[in-house]
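User: Can you predict the 3D structure for this chain?
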Amino acid sequence: MSSEILVYGGCVSRDLFSVMCPNDKPKNYLARQSLISAATLPVDVPTINLTSSFQKRMVVSDFRSSLFSMFFDSPYCTDLVLMDLLGERLGVLELEGGRYLTHSNELVRSGAKEMLGEYRLIKFGSEEHLSIWKIAAVQFYKVLLQNGLVEKTVILKTPFADFDEKQNPIKKHMNKDCQQWAENYEPYYDFLRTIGITILEINDELAVGSNDHKWGPAPYHYIEEAYNSWASNIDNYLKNRSTLAR
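Assistant: Here is the predicted structure, written as structure tokens:
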């Protein structure tokens, strides 16, 4: 499969890319940036104290609201935009002047949060968050449309797993079980479907955590069969799109 793929979101999309293109790197990869942050004005970047160059780059990118520029820098030649909504679960910080930052763990660890002045946390799943996020999602759709990327974009629906492959319970993520996460996420997926962005799902029985996952156990670190199923679905999607384009 071509590696002309933009990856945006969380580790599920990045891990899936590794399954699809095991010997390549994505054309570009952006994580830890909510659509809300991406669609609003950038924030002046303070000192970012992180040892990981990747984590530092992602925090700086969030301050700069860089997502949309990634699409404008890589328009029609891109074959696929592969993304998930995992980063949205972190919520956003509302700053003065109608600006937002993703409330990522990396932001907290960087020490930059203490330099922001006044801010307010808006939690994922709340009516306020969903309302602001819908406005950002429409802007996102318009950017995809401007760059010929709407039909090349697929969003992975990532059901959280309560159990691993040995039927051992997985620790609740942020004190929520898989059903609570599913309920929180569904309005977001529904809205994206409404505006015309493709959502790709896997069968519920594949929403199983893996103890052998390279990033360790978590509700969104799945067994190998889950990634293989997504890869097959994407392959079918691309083939069908190619057939319709003829």
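The chain has a mean pLDDT of 93. The two ends are 20 Å apart (CA to CA).
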